[in-house]
Specification:
The complex is a heterodimer of chains A (433) and B (501).
Chain A (H helix, E strand, L loop, with lengths): L3 E9 L5 H9 L2 E3 L2 E2 L14 E8 L21 E9 L2 H20 L11 H7 L4 E6 L6 H20 L1 H4 L4 H17 L13 H42 L9 H9 L6 E9 L4 H21 L11 E9 L4 E9 L2 H20 L8 E2 L3 E2 L4 H11 L3 E6 L6 H14 L6 H8 L3
Antiparallel strand pairs in A: 1-5, 2-3, 4-5, 4-12, 6-8, 7-9, 8-9, 10-11
Helix pairs in contact in A: 2-3, 4-12, 6-13, 7-9, 9-10
Chain B lengths: L26 E9 L2 H10 L14 E7 L1 H6 L4 H4 L4 H5 L4 H7 L21 E7 L1 H12 L3 H4 E8 L19 E3 L16 E3 L19 E2 L18 E2 L5 E10 L1 H11 L4 H12 L24 H4 L17 H5 L13 H8 L21 E2 L2 E3 L5 H4 L11 E8 L3 H13 L29 E5 L2 E6 L6 E11 L2 H9 L4
Parallel strand pairs in B: 5-6
Antiparallel strand pairs in B: 1-3, 1-4, 2-3, 7-8, 9-12, 9-15, 10-12, 11-12, 13-14
Helix pairs in contact in B: 1-15, 8-9
Classes of the chains: A alpha+beta (433), B alpha+beta (501).
Chain lengths: 433, 501
Amino acid sequence: MTPQSNFMVLAPIDPRREMELRQLLDSMNRGPGQVDPNNALLPFAEFDTLHFARFIILDDKTTEDVRVYGLSPRSYPLYLAFLGDVDGDANAFLGKLIKRTGKGLGRIFSCCEEFTSDTDLLAWMKQHHAPAIAAYVNWRGRTVRQIREENALYDALENHTEQNAATFQGLPPRELHEKLRTFVSAEKSAGRLILSPENPTPLGWQIRNLLHMLGLPLLVLIASPLLILLAPFYIIALRRLEKTDPEVCPTTDQKHSEDLSRIEDHDVTNQFSAMGSLKPGLVRLLTTISVLKTVNYGARHITRRGHLGRIRSIHFARWVFVAGRERMIFCSNYDGSVESYMDDFINKTGFGLNASFSNGVGYPRTNWLVRDGCIDERNYKEYLRRHTLVTQVWYKAYPGLTAVDLERNTRIRQGLERSSMTNEQAGEWVALL
Amino acid sequence: MGGVVMSEIEYADVQGLLCFGYAHLTSASYALVRVRNVNAAKAWLRDAKLTSAVAQNAPPSTALNIAFTAPGLRALGIPEPVMAGFSHEFRGEMAEESRSRQLGDLGSNAPSNWVWGSYGQEPHVLVMFFAKPEQFDSFVQNAKGNTWSDAFEEVTSLGTSNLDGDEPFHFRDGISQPQIDWDQKRQTPCTQLEYTNIVALGEFLLGYRNEYGKITDRPLLKPDAASAGLLDALDAPGMKDLGRNGTYLIMRQLEQDVRSFWQFLYEQASGNLAEASQLGAKMVGRTEQGEPLVPIQDRPIPGMDPKTVKQNQFTYESDASGGRCPFGAHVRRTNPRNSDFPEQRLSAIRKLITMMGFGPKGFYDDLTSSVRFHRILRRGREYGSELSPDDALQPAPPNESPRGLHFICLNANISRQFEFLQNAWIASTKFSGLTGESDPLLGNREPISGCPVTGNFTMPGGGSLPRRVSGLPQFVTVRGGAYFFLPSLRALRYFAVVGNA
């Protein structure tokens, strides 16, 4: 298995060159929200291990919100973020990226502070790396190459079954399965279909993964006497905050709302980037860190492949602290419209949503960390929309395919690789076609 | 809920359309007008005799209801801070370019091709006239009165026809409607473990609790001379509620190519009309007579109108594979009849397991959102003459008049109800694990990025290879549309007086 990894380069923009940067990023698009995958600056499509990538200018318009706590907002520099989700090691990917498109990347990053013509690009990018505190991968191990091969398989099977519909219709499923196995193996022999076998899982990754899997519960176990002792104090403090923390959910500015809509729904998948300030104080900071560490652990070791809780429409997602511990960004790639995305979250994973986002300034009031909150649907949606950033450039390696499409194709492939099935299994498999 | 008081409905303040479809008033027309003279328009609105939702012993023989677009309210001089209280969708308008992508209004459906409602040419006011046929003309004339043409300029006047409960494709229509919880007995927020047809009042009427137990945003005003007549907001002490007892009305003119529909079915059925009719039933999800494709269950469904039990008391629980009613069938897309969880009536433990993401493992499981957040109340009417399937197989005579549906629906939250339905369930080519197909009746068949083909229709085979029909033509074309606010009678009076010296 080839595990996926991610990178995020985060650097303050040289204020004098912000306009130039915006124009550069715009030049990578064919139209609003539609990247040219072969654009001259960074031809994403040339990298066959890159799933998703984006450039965002972190123009957080909500920094004033901390005033509700009597704090005066800090003037943060304007940051540029460059994110990607890749097959294999992220650093190795960046190395490849620089080799092929170093010039374009250099032009973009030269609009950032402390970047000069003789800067070592790779070292600079590593130095500006912003690690995710929690990350979710829809299907660990499924590579871009696999996605493309399996989609070609689906197309071939659809063509073949359509051409032979008269003979195939009504055939017992096991017989049909056998016939399609034969067809596919002939197509493979003829070189018209490729279904590459899985690469071996890197040993280093396996060890790190195992240590992570055992490490966190062990740590919690060791700390448990202390945690139990502190729990009542923590709960009292949290409840007090929950009852007094002010909500900041004004109606989103209509222009901002329309700016966001303009770059959405050009593909079946959309990008999402939301940013905000954390509520002040240690209790909220520790809650954020613990919840997100738990989410990260669950996403990595517990969730069923293809699922984030009940949600099956997210390809990749991550939470990252932005330069320090005061502000945070959440980035995801999800299928469908933003409205259905928000509804899915509220109705299916409201508890998780509350736990992970309620530490942000102004979030609709929660109770016991997981209750209420986003159930205040309109306020929640205004809150989220207001915190959403306009993404300048967004790339997806497989336009037109949803996470559920990818799962169907993988299930079809897995079924094909089985030499025998029960009637029931074969029936379920045939229903995927 | 904190601060939310239960309040009895003042039916005399609610426009009748929320309670009644006026089916017995078989003549109807919709005047779409722009304000010509503000003062004359306000005077006309002030004098208009709106039909309220008060039930009468003898049903009325005429009815008048009125709704406004955002440009219409601005034309009447509604102040901008008040406008800001309306939803983004209403203010942003249906014909906005980004919205067109979401609603599937692309290609021949695009607003630039509309006969009414395109950007910059939005109607201001929708005036709906209903009457018994013999009284219709005189009613309309009286209702318009002498000042009508001083006040308004007609964009268009849309006639309707009475097809006796069928829609133009010749299928029974309007069988299933949500039952509004007028008495506000429904406990919300709640977890719905079984499909119910009862929907919280606040899903259809602004100012009351919705399915989340919250009151949807709407303009709240400080008390002043103009707003004095409005009711109080139930969740904001001291504020006047402009939205209360009103709702949003969505109108779309959907032209139906009845000939192309039946000719396509006939061709697919190799010239067998009975088989064509069966394929049509699979696409619609009901037979022409309105019979569902899955058996009627014994178990009652809460909120089911007893008169419609024979055609409505069913869910798709017994048809999880879509073998009887395809997932993509129009009525299954638009009302999947599900609950909050993929399995109905599940235990607390099972609920928890499902919540954590370890519920049913099947590919098609749990892909469809819970329908109770996405219901709409349909109030549309057909236009054009009836055409039987037999006749539809003949080529069209020259200059044939168009047929279709003046689709009208009511809801309190346009984005979560109408737009979600239209976007995620009708226009989406990825509904419920499907790919390459949108709604078989309403889909626009436009290619999307990465998917050149969107004109399929799949009928799961129940264990054998699904049957897939391809090359569906576009049967329905959007010819116009707009978002309206259907005010309460009090809010209408406010519109008529606000800003007046």
